Structure formats: structure tokens, C-alpha cells
């Protein structure tokens, strides 16, 4: 038994989709969530910048005595998780990757689509996943500039967000894709809108549940499950604490009142 908290971080509020999935699957675990909103979006950062930022985030979470760190950000996972594992070899990490393998196994038309940030869409990591798991599939790879920022401020139902979705989903709607993977943790908060806009014939896959299951597996391997009758959930941000509380409350549909400021 290990009642230390699990650390979860993202460039902003998107990783709350992963936080939500972990909390649902592991209700007795305490969780610390850090939104690096002061440096959002990660999708426009260089690899060296991401290494520096995620290094500082890790040090902050380790100071909170976390037992495991979840990189709840596709861009940070793609560009920094190997670096983090090498830099902090004693820390168990779990990350989020585009669900290319799942899409390739579930498609019936042979065409799959991945929605991600521009940085992830152009990454060697995603290209490698496609080569490994979908070499004979047609892949619609869409870098969705601007979409992460809309979710970051809680604009999930505005006309501007609708216009962005229309533009980014156009290549998918004009293809034979019958499965779509959400390659950014911000996007699950738009999942129902995306699904509605693409129609019943297209299935949309959210990676947060597989991440939660992997967290459970890592805890089982280390005999590190928590068993707290009153788990503690703490939230931090490197940005505006009040704004984070408002947006997080809206996205999670629960009150998030106490938010700490992380100076990293």
C-alpha cells in the first residue's frame, strides 16, 4: 500500500480529461494535477524547450512526494517522455500517445484519422506509430492549430470553436475514415461535438481510459495502490489560478475552488 499521490500534468487544462479517467478508475487514489498554463501551448514549443519545462514540472511534482507521474499531454509525451525517463530513472512515468494501433485494428474502410496539435502531427514519433501499426492504412493526419487554445479558456461551445472544428474536420469528412483518434488531451472535452459533426458512421477514440488502465497496471506491478478513505485532490497552475478554477469547474462539471500557484 502506498497512499502518496499520483502526479498528473499537462500544458494546461486538457490533461483534466486524463485526471477524470484516473479518478473514476482508481477512486481511492489521491491526485495532484499541475497545469503549466503559464507556458501553453506546448504544441508550438521546440523539443529543447519542452525538455526544460517538463524537467521543472517533474521537480515540482517530486517535491509534492508523488509516487508516479502521468504526462497527460500528447505533445510532451511525444517529445519529452524518453528524456524524462532518462533524467529521472527512479520515477515511473505514464504518457499519452495517439491511439494509432487501436484505430488500425478497428477500421473497416482501411482509412483512419488522427487529430492532434501541429507539433504532434509533424513529429517523428507519430510517423513511427503510423509506420509500425498502420503501414497499409490510409491515414488522415490533421494538425489542429487553435483548437487547444479554445479548450484552454473553456470555449467548447462557441461559434469560433465550431468554425475551427468545421475547418479541421473537413479532411476527415471528405475521406473514407471511419475511426478517429483524439491526439491531444484537450480534445476529449470536444468529443461529443466532434462525434456529432462526423456522424454515426465514425467512431471517435479518447486515449484517457487506456492511460488510466496503464496507471493501474503500474501501481499493481509496484504494489503501490492507495487505500485512502478520503483521497485528496490538489490542483496547481503556473498561470492564472482564478481562471484555471473557473475553466476546470466548467470542464469537469464539479467545483474546483482551491488552486495553488506553481512557480516553476
Mean pLDDT: 94
Number of helices: 11
The CATH architecture name of the largest domain reads 3-Layer(aba) Sandwich
Name of the level-1 CATH class of the largest domain:
Alpha Beta
- Helical content stands at 40-55%
Q: Number of folding domains? A: 2
Order of helices and strands: EHEHEHEHEHHEHHEHEHEHE
Distance between the termini: 31 Å
Low-confidence stretches: none
The beta-strand count equals: 10
Classify the beta-strand content into a percent band.
15-25%
Fold-level CATH name of the largest domain: Rossmann fold
Main sheet specs:
6 strands, parallel
The order of strands across the largest sheet is 4-3-1-2-9-10
Radius of gyration: 18 Å
What does this structure look like?
It is a single chain. With 264 residues, the protein is an alpha/beta fold. The protein folds into two domains: 143 residues, 3-Layer(aba) Sandwich (Rossmann fold), CATH 3.40.50.1860; 107 residues, Rossmann fold (3-Layer(aba) Sandwich), CATH 3.40.50. 44% of the residues lie in helices and 17% in strands. It is built from eleven helices and ten strands. It has a six-stranded parallel sheet with strand order 4-3-1-2-9-10, sandwiched between helices. The longest helix is centred in the N-terminal third of the chain and has 17 residues. The protein starts with 5 loop residues before the first strand and ends with a strand. The mean pLDDT is 94.
Amino acid at each position: 500500500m502506498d497512499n502518496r499521490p499520483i502526479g498528473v500534468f499537462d500544458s494546461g487544462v486538457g490533461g483534466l480529461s486524463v485526471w477524470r479517467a484516473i479518478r473514476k478508475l482508481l477512486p481511492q487514489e489521491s491526485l495532484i494535477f499541475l497545469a503549466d498554463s503559464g507556458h501553453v501551448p506546448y504544441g508550438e514549443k521546440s523539443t529543447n524547450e519542452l525538455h526544460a519545462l517538463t524537467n521543472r514540472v517533474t521537480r515540482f511534482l517530486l517535491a509534492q512526494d508523488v509516487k508516479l507521474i502521468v504526462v497527460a499531454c500528447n505533445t510532451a509525451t511525444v517529445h519529452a517522455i524518453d528524456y524524462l525517463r532518462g533524467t529521472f530513472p527512479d520515477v515511473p512515468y505514464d504518457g499519452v500517445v495517439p491511439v494509432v494501433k487501436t484505430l488500425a485494428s478497428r477500421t473497416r474502410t482501411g482509412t483512419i484519422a488522427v487529430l492532434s496539435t501541429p507539433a504532434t502531427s509533424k513529429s517523428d514519433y507519430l510517423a513511427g506509430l503510423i509506420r509500425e501499426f498502420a503501414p497499409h492504412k490510409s491515414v488522415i493526419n490533421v494538425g489542429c492549430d487553435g483548437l487547444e487554445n479554445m479548450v484552454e479558456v473553456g470555449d467548447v461551445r462557441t461559434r469560433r470553436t465550431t468554425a475551427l472544428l468545421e475547418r479541421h474536420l473537413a479532411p476527415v469528412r471528405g475521406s473514407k475514415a471511419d475511426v478517429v483518434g483524439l491526439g491531444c488531451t484537450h480534445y476529449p472535452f470536444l468529443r461529443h461535438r466532434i462525434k456529432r459533426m462526423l456522424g454515426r458512421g465514425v467512431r471517435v477514440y479518447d486515449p484517457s481510459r487506456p492511460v488510466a488502465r496503464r496507471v493501474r497496471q503500474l501501481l499493481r506491478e509496484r504494489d503501490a495502490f492507495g487505500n485512502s478513505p478520503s483521497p485528496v485532490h490538489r490542483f496547481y497552475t503556473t498561470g492564472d489560478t482564478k481562471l484555471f478554477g473557473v475553466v476546470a469547474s466548467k470542464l469537469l462539471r464539479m467545483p474546483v475552488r482551491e488552486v495553488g500557484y506553481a512557480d516553476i
